[in-house]
């Protein structure tokens, strides 16, 4: 197998919560807690989990939009020597942010309403001084707009003139104009009508192949993940609790949380029955995590050890040579 293009190792991101005029520390949110994963060139790694589990923070930390407390984020473009993004200085970081681009969930708030399409899409070209004159910029913008299925004729228009799907195409054009290597797509279709979602997903797939991209694909919707991803990492309260191929995650999940998440997916095929498990209880308060396995208060299989000892993310024995990790004391 190729070397990973991105390798996240023991990443921790903590938000300190302060209160009052003197901003006294009132607690901390371990939004990303000892997260490790690898992404290989050309693959789509899905990142799933309930709201607040740390998916967006993981993506933002990779781009140093938030500073990690500790850990390493190794980026190896073209299989070369890895650069630790955590240690990158401003010039290096600027280059990394050209190579790794983000697409956000909400195309209504992610596009500046006072900038026209041309300005929005060309911003990264201009900041990075990748093109010389205006004619050249316009040509590049027209080219990428055509690529994402928008008529370049509309490049002088402002975001309000476009539908949700079209806005997401503008956001995709903005991300791709600098020819990145990795795209972090943070719930890129959640805000869109169901009828438009498939169009945008197909577009993302086509662009991945045409531009040889690698995706970290964040999503709530498991049907979307099953359709899009090669491998899936499942997050719960800041930690990855299971990671494997999409096939294995959906057919032989090893973590009770993954099982429960899958149980919540409606399955259209009546012949294919999956035991429906209703997730018991609420997600624990992340500022007051339970001892032992963080999932144990909601787990129907929890035993004494689960209340006492945090399970490690370990290889599952019967994975038949495929990489499959789960953090459950009873994962095998
Ligand atoms: N700037 C911040 N300050 C304080 N806490 C934050 C901040 N950003 C996120 N958090 C907290 O960190 C945790 C992880 O949030 P994050 O947005 O990464 O979750 P998520 O998995 O992306 O959720 P969603 O599915 O709702 O987008 C949550 O408890 C959230 O409240
Ligand atoms: Mg999020």
Provide an overview of this structure.
The protein is an alpha/beta fold. The chain is built from ten helices and twelve strands. The strands form two sheets. An eight-stranded mixed sheet has the order 6-7-8-3-9-10-12-11, sandwiched between helices. The chain has a four-stranded antiparallel sheet with strand order 2-1-4-5. It starts with 5 loop residues before the first strand and ends in a 6-residue tail after the last strand. Mean pLDDT is 91; it is low at 272-277. The structure holds adenosine-5'-triphosphate (ATP) and magnesium ion. Adenosine-5'-triphosphate binds at residues 15, 29, 31, 49, 51-57, 220, 286. The site of adenosine-5'-triphosphate has 13 residues, from strand 2 and helix 1.
Give the strand line-up of the largest sheet: 6-7-8-3-9-10-12-11
Largest sheet: 8 strands, mixed
Low-confidence residue ranges: 272-277
Mean pLDDT: 91
CA-CA gap between termini: 26 Å
DSSP E strands, number: 12
Helix run count: 10
Write down the secondary-structure element order. Answer: EEEHEEHEHHHEHEHEEHHHEE
Morphology: globular
Helix percentage = 25-40%
What bound compounds does this protein have?
A: adenosine-5'-triphosphate, magnesium ion
Q: Please report which band the strand proportion falls in: under 5%, 5-15%, 15-25%, 25-35%, 35-45% or over 45%.
A: 15-25%
Structural class: alpha/beta
Q: Radius of gyration over alpha carbons?
A: 21 Å
